[in-house]
Write a structure and sequence with these properties.
346 residues; 41% helix; alpha/beta; two-stranded parallel ribbon; single chain; globular
């Protein structure tokens, strides 16, 4: 959980609509919403790409609450009549939880004109109660000065790590996305799937003597830079962020079977300020998403986005990824974690 910076700005729309004769301060207070962002470069990107155009167009203020999806969802669930945040940034599994609990509104083009430019599959993936606007791909990152011929597929990755030719760094079970980017993705690539993850656990058994585990993204970078590992399972965007920071020895491959798509969803809690629709429409805007992609090094979802020359070769089209069955994974996630703890233990 990242730094909590919850701003309890009251979005008193009803009062605002009646505020024609009220003091100016009361009117200004009525035109505030609270949106959400992860910390670090995410916050910078959100403020630059979404908050700024929203405030310029609406003359309203968007306060940014930093934190993480479990925290925001708990806050909304605890105060459904007057949610403390007006826009949610969510992982797909928690977005589905919010949708199933009827905590969030349905997205429609009449409320969000830019939704028409988002592929329907990405909106359907969260039951139409939100949509994906940003995504990363979990694939194979490697040290190209030590690995001149990197594995091109998950199957080749497993064989070469199992043989001892390569040492690999993979996410530990403490990392929230591991069930999707590693367990499901590798199981599927090796002939299994959400109903059968035996191929994944068999592969881990074969590779166990040549694996190290990362608990956070910086651990992975340290493994590669120090020589502790040669390759690993990691995200494309973070790989390119390291590259742009001077680690020009790092490179990324989308495995032939398709790396897992790890999307970021946006949702509007029920009873949130209606101005949230204007803000979300800015999130889905092609020009704003183009800027966001340039800062984050991740793919975005508006079909009108044209990536810069630097980003074009880096971005994997979402159609070439493996699209996780988020809902089914959520149902068996705890079983997978229990099995990991029994058979792998770290």
């Amino acid at each position: 959980m990242k730094r909590r910076h919850f701003l309890g700005g009251s979005a008193m729309v009803g009062a605002g609509l009646m505020a024609g004769g009220l003091p100016r301060l009361a009117n200004a207070q009525s035109k505030e919403i609270t949106v959400t962002a992860f910390g670090g470069v995410w916050e910078e990107a959100v403020r630059t790409c979404f908050v700024a155009p929203f405030e310029a167009k609406t003359k309203a203020k968007a306060n940014v609450s930093l934190g993480g999806p479990p925290q925001w969802l708990a806050q909304v669930e605890a105060n459904q009549a007057k949610p403390p945040v007006d826009v949610l940034i969510m992982t797909p599994d928690l977005a589905l939880s919010a949708a199933k609990a009827d905590l969030v509104d349905t997205f429609t083009v009449d409320k969000l004109p830019n939704l028409a430019k988002i592929p329907q599959e990405l909106t359907d993936s969260v039951m139409g109660k939100g949509t994906l606007f940003d995504y990363g791909v979990g694939g194979i990152t490697f040290h190209k000065e030590r690995v001149s011929n990197p594995p091109k597929s998950f199957a080749e990755f497993v064989d070469r790590v199992a043989s001892g030719e390569l040492v690999a760094s993979v996410p530990s079970i403490s990392y929230a996305v591991t069930p999707i980017m590693l367990i499901w993705a590798m199981a599927k690539a090796l002939g299994g799937g959400v109903e059968n993850v035996d191929p994944f656990f068999k592969a881990m058994e074969k590779m166990k003597d040549n694996l190290v585990y990362w608990g956070g993204p910086n651990d992975f970078f340290n493994h590669l830079s120090s020589g502790e590992a040669d390759v690993g399972i990691y995200f494309d965007g973070r790989t390119w962020n390291h590259y742009d920071s001077g680690a020009t020895w790092i490179d990324f491959i989308n495995p032939e079977e398709g790396g897992s798509l790890n999307g970021v969803a946006v949702q509007k809690p029920k009873n949130a300020d209606p101005l949230a629709w204007d803000y979300i429409n800015e999130i889905l805007d092609a020009q704003n998403q183009t800027k966001f992609a340039d800062i984050m090094n991740y793919g975005v979802t508006n079909t009108d986005v044209v990536y810069s020359e630097k980003l074009k070769p880096r971005i994997t089209p979402w159609q070439k990824t493996a699209f996780p069955p988020y809902e089914q994974i959520a149902e068996v996630r705890n079983e997978w974690v229990d099995r990991w703890n029994r058979e792998i233990g770290r």
